[in-house]
Amino acid sequence: MAELDSINRNILHELEGDGRMSNTDLAARVGLSPSACLRRVQELERNGWITGYRAVLDRARLGTGLIVFVMVGLDAHLSKDARAFERAMEAAPQVRECHNITGAVEYLLRVEVEDLPAYKAFHADILGVLPQVRSITSHISLGSPKDKRA
């Protein structure tokens, strides 16, 4: 596995800020030759430190500007129920993130929809019909002053 020395950490930091940065620019920022930088990036990719690159989209322009964080409690603590719930969330395009968490509920979802009626439909027609679901608590995001997800 690639060692995370200070140069590798700098490479990861720079790519996290701009995954489309050219190798030449990245090399200059971390103080390496372009060939040495490329070798390190490829090694970080091969060894799983870098798992992918993605575009950050303007959700409001795409018509999914309402973000709702949803806490979901399951009826039972059985692995078959958790797997069934997770499959349902994987199939729901409104669910952008699904996290299994500790605490009073089992899941935290990040749901992105067009507007409140669209969220109401998701709540009633997708979450509300799942037999595993015991409780649903919705938190509507008023804004995201810091969002470092790539």
In summary, what is this structure?
By secondary structure, the protein is an alpha+beta fold. Helices cover 37% and strands 20% of the residues.
Descriptors for this entry?
150 residues; alpha+beta; Arc Repressor Mutant, subunit A; Alpha-Beta Plaits; 2 domains; four-stranded antiparallel β-sheet; 5 helices; 4 strands; 20% strand; elongated
Describe the secondary structure blueprint for this structure.
Layout: H1 6-17, H2 23-30, H3 34-46, E1 66-74, H4 79-91, E2 95-100, E3 107-113, H5 116-125, E4 133-140
Antiparallel strand pairs: 1-3, 1-4, 2-3
Helix pairs in contact: 1-2, 2-3
Strand order of the largest sheet: 2-3-1-4
Helix-strand category: alpha+beta
Q: Percent helix among the residues?
A: 25-40%
User: What is the radius of gyration computed over CA atoms, rounded to a whole number of angstroms?
Assistant: 20 Å
Share of β-strand residues: 15-25%
Q: CATH topology of the largest domain, which one? A: Alpha-Beta Plaits
